[in-house]
Amino acid sequence: MTQEINKAGEWLVVCLCAEWCGTCKQYQQPFAEMAAQFPQMRFVWLDVEDHEELAGDLDIETFPSILVAQGEQARFLGPVLPQPAVLVRMLQSLLHDAGAKPADVQQAQDLLQRLLRADDLPDALR
């Protein structure tokens, strides 16, 4: 995983979800379709229960939650409305706003580093 994503400036969009979550199940297909809309970004669907070691002590209370990173810099971590247009607008905004950072930078960076080091992260959607 590290070799694939660690390219300078490459974008990573991770949907943190759970298999039991009905909202996540409905969001999965539109999320996969966004991968085609943003070919410059790598989209990953990550079940936080199947990959507890990656989620760490991250307490996700709202699904879907999204991590967006550019290279080794986390740009967003948090819940989003389960409407594809919301994430599309956010990604378009982040592409043009180099200064945007997540509210809890350390938590987002810690999660990103675990993902970058992971050997068993699910395949990217693109």
UniProtKB/TrEMBL annotation:
Listed SUPFAM superfamilies: Thioredoxin-like
Pfam families xrefs: Thioredoxin
Protein name stated in the entry: Thioredoxin
Top-level lineage group: Bacteria
Domain Thioredoxin: 1-96
